[in-house]
Amino acid sequence: MEGQFKILFDQMKIEMEKQTNTLFEKMNEKLEPLIEDNKILKFKVQMLEKKIEYLEKEKKRNNILLFGLEEKENSSFHLLQRVQGIFKEDLKINLETSDVSKIYRIGLSKENKKRPILITFANSWKRSEILKQKKSLKDVYVTEDFPKEVLEKRRELKTKLLEERAKGNTAYIKYDQLVVIEGNQNKEKRKSDQLTSPEHQHQNQAKKKPGSNNTIIKDNRRNAFDLMRPRSNSSSSIPNQSK
Are strands 177-181 and 117-121 parallel, antiparallel or unpaired? Predict the structure, then answer.
């Protein structure tokens, strides 16, 4: 009796496995097109995200943010005049009215709060000129206008940036990437630059010249004495005619 139950159970098990496999095969047949469609949709979403990121970057390409300027202006034109005065005094850059497309403060106005100023330039070269000399600004500072995703990435990289600088390496963040130059490479580069610099070569030439001149002088003196010896011998061999 037990043997019959076992045979029956094994047959049921085999039949269930067959039905399960058949069911999975049918499900896979139906799911394969869906999986493929899902892959295509994911690819399209990624492309759209890249396109949006590019458009966002292009939109902010000619922008800078200025921080630290007290809110004393009564109009956008007055604000522009104040910014023009700062750039002229600190950076020695003449910012014309035609160089600026837009200028306004960001965020809601609050008491005792200096809202940042967004400046959109009509051309990128004026923006680049200001960013190159931004360290000369005294009471305010400027930064690039980064997209939100880039700002988050830069914040994440700051910890790594400080770690690399603590190791003695040169490190800085370029857009959303951390650039690290090892300290030994800097030393070797500076040493190579010094050796190949015109000033260093001039110093080497100056050091060599005194030695070479002394050698020539010594040789000339030695040769002069050598020339005098035969003359002295010949003069002693000439009889004294006065006698």
Answer: unpaired
